[in-house]
Write a structure and sequence with these properties.
- The structure is a single chain.
- By secondary structure, the protein is of the alpha+beta class.
- It contains 13 helices and 15 strands.
- The strands form four sheets. Strands 6, 7, 8, 9, 10, 11 and 12 form a seven-stranded mixed β-sheet that branches. A four-stranded antiparallel β-sheet has the order 5-14-1-15. Strands 2-3 form a two-stranded antiparallel sheet.
- Helix 1 packs across helix 10, helix 2 runs antiparallel to helix 11 and helix 8 packs parallel to helix 12.
- It is elongated, with a radius of gyration of 35 Å.
Length: 457
Amino acid sequence: MKTTDIIRRAARSLANAKARTILTSLAIGVGAFTITVSLAAGQGAREYANNLINSNVNPQSLFVVADESIVGGGGLQSSIRVYDPDTTTTQGITVKQMTQEDIDMLADRDDLTNVMPIYQPSVQFMTFGDSTTRFVADVSTYNASIISGVAYGNVPPQGEAIAADEVVIPESYVQTLIDNKVIKNGSELVGKKVVMTAVQATASPTPEQIQAAFATGGETAVQSLLQPKTQTFSFKVRAVSAKSAEALTSTMSVQIAPDAARAISEFTTQGTPQYQKYFGATAIVKDGIDPVTVKESLAKDNLYAQTAQDLQGVVFTVVNTLQGIVLGFGVIALIASVFGIINTQYISVLERTREIGLMKALGMRGKSVSRLFQFEAAWIGFLGGIIGAGIAIVVGLLANPWITEMLGLSKGTSLLIFQPIPIAIMIIALIIIAMLAGWFPARKAAKLDPIEALRTE
């Protein structure tokens, strides 16, 4: 009997038991639906992340550190270790910092440009405009290589820094400033004066220094010696940043120019072991040079870099992990449906025992009988895949605009991207799985004795 004839006969047999066929196919469809959605979500998330990184981060940019563990070279050190004046400890985690010599070495390289240390400016408080209310907020360095969304004002094009006397304020600060009657609305922030007060972290004076101060100036001199030095830094607001669909990140700190960040950092750390020590640095690899080559070269000098491609890999790893979890649920649903196919086919064999006996009595070989039941299982797998994938595609296309709106993404962005080839591969895989599941019932049908089968009531 020809294979095409067997396939058509298998389809007719399933058509005679529509309810059972549909229910079994729906069981497979649940797994197919989950797998299709996870494949679409993974593809959509990867494309979105790829577009986000490419549109926000210069592909030639490098993030350079002195501690390999920061860029994935091992676990951060939280146990006891030999003292190193070039390290800093935060929340029990010890990190080796870059020194000014490291920065100078990077600046002298022929393959790098725009070398910029990552300053960590710290201010005691800040005031806005004519208001005397003091506010406490984090301060960070404006990163010219990353595009920021803007609610009010404007920021320079990518690659250009703000002026030394300018700051960018997060939009999240606006409501607090309104509540404290500093401004009436967010647009008033643009152009407003901001004064930051920094305190120098000086060492405690020795008893000899205190005695000398008292001898020369009395109690007033001692109080002056014990009083930490402060310095004010004045800025004006250039823009109010906002998180947008095209922005890679939304900072929660006040951003100042690199020169200003350096001035504050050096003032607050002068006279301490943290003076001119940096968490890391950013740099741009010159055009025509592969950032990976520069990264490998820096490793020889005990400096470790992360490229834009590495950042993309980190994001993709997270996406792939989440996709794998969702796929796992789909696989569990498919495993459950496999037993459903086996059960359905066993019942079909029992109900059609006389029919099987008649087919074998008329000359149909056991191998053909086995293939008949395996093709029936294949049809069930095919129908389940088509149903599950079809429903997933319809639901995904309808849900895409809603997901875009709920997440605040730009119009036209799709986080569920359905690709025909992976879906087709999934359906083929479901057919193969269904045929394997139908092998046991098919084997039972093939081994039936035709005489005994015809005697069955």
